[in-house]
Amino acid sequence: MKIKSLIIAITLLSTGYVSAQANLLNAKIPEQVGMKTPEQLAADNDRPLPYGYIDDRDILWSKVVWEYVDLNEKINMPYYYPVDTSNIGSNRRSLFDTLLRGIKSGEIIDIYDDSYFEDKLTMKDIQGRLSRVDTSDAGYERLNAGEILTDEYIDKRDLTSADIQGFKTKGVWFFDKRQGELKYRLLGIAPVAPDVNFIDNEGGEDETIELFWVWYPGARYTTFDMKVFNQKNSAYPLSYDHLLNARRYNAIIYREENIYGNRDVAEYIKGNSLFQVLESEKLKEDIRNKELDMWNY
After folding, report:
1. What share of the chain has pLDDT > 90, as a percent?
2. Cross-strand bridge partners of residue 208
3. Vertex 262, ends 281 and 216: CA angle to 5°?
C-alpha cells in the first residue's frame, strides 16, 4: 500500500513538471507547440525551494571546500550542452549561458572577482573577460602603409559555452546537530575557460582562468527556470538548481580551508597529478567519515 501511494505521489509530482514540450499532443500547427493556456500559466508558479534557516549554534562542525567540475566527464555533460542553440528552445541552455543570461538581464547581481566575494564586477568588467578585439597582422601593415583600416582586418573573438572547460564551486559541509545529519550548501560557482587574449595562440588553451564568481544563493531563480534534458524521461525535465543542490556531478577538491591560508592541493603536492587526485579523494573521505564519527562513542 505504501509503494502504491509512493507511485501516485511521484506521478502527480511529475505532471507538474511537464514543460519540455508543452501542448505537443494538442497542437494543430507547429507554431502552437510550447504555447500554454492561461490556466497552465497560472498554475506554473513553482519556485525553488527556499533554504531552511540554520542557526549558527546548531552547526556542530563545518568545513569550506573548493571543487572543480570537469565538463569533459560524461556525468558533467548536462552542464555543458547544448552548445549549438539554433534548433533548441529558449528554455534549454548550458549552465554558462544560463548564468550569463541572468547577469545581462539583471536577475543575477552578485558577481565577484574571486571566491571570497569581496570585489564586485560590473558588466563591463565581465565583457572584457569574454571578448577580445584586436588588429590582424595584415591590418598593421595597412596602418603602416597609411591605408584606411576596414572591419575585415579586425579580429574579434568571443568566448562561448563551447569554450567553457569546467566550473569551480565553493561550498560548505556542515553537521546539523538539530537534524543529526551532514549537509552541503553551495555558496558560489565560477565558469572556467581559456584566457580570451591567448586562446588562439599556440599553447594558450592550457592556461585557464575563472571568468567570474556568482554568489549562488542569489542566482537560484535563474538556475531554477532553466531546464536540463532528462535522458531517462524527457517529459520530466530537471533544472540546474535541482542538479547543483543534489550534487549530481563529479568534482575534485582542489582547496580546503586550512591553517596555511587555504592553500591549494597543487601547492603542497607539486608535479604529480596522480597524488593530487589521491589527496582530493582523501579529503572527500575525511568529510564523509565525519558523519559516521559523530555516532561513534
Report:
1. 54
2. 194
3. 80
Omega of the bond leading into 194 within 30 degrees of 0 (cis)? no
Q: What is the mean pLDDT of residues 197-217?
A: 81
Q: Give yes or no for residue 251 having a pLDDT over 80.
A: yes
Can you read off the three cell numbers belonging to residue 87? 534548433
Contact between residue 168 and residue 189 where contact means Cβ atoms under 8 Å apart: yes
The answer to whether 2 touches 10, Cβ cutoff 8 Å, is: no
Per DSSP, 43 falls in state: H
Buried-exposed string 232-257: b where 16+ CB fall within 10 A, e elsewhere: eeeebbbbbbbbbbeeebebbbbbbe
C-alpha 67: how far from chain center? 12
Q: Give CA separation, 288 vs 51, 69, 144, 277, in Å.
A: 22, 19, 64, 17
Q: Model confidence at 294, in pLDDT bands (50, 70, 90)?
A: confident
The pLDDT tens digits for 12-35 are 343 344 445 667 677 777 776 767
What is d(CA 163, CA 204) in angstroms, rounded to the nearest whole number? Answer: 13
Please check whether residue 161 is in contact with residue 97, taking contact to mean a CB–CB distance below 8 angstroms.
yes
| 206 grid coordinates | 592550457
pLDDT at position 164, please?
A: 94
CA angle 47, 188, 197 (to 5 degrees): 120
What is the chain's mean pLDDT, rounded? 84
117/2 Cα distance (integer angstroms)? 47
274 Cβ contact partners less than 8 Å away, ≥ 6 residues apart: none
Which residue, among 248, 255, 280, has the nearest Cα to 79 in the 3D structure?
Answer: 248
In terms of DSSP bridges, do strands 227-228 and 238-239 run parallel, antiparallel, or are they unpaired? antiparallel
d(CA 212, CA 114): 7
The per-residue pLDDT for 250 is: 95
pLDDT at position 147 over 80: no
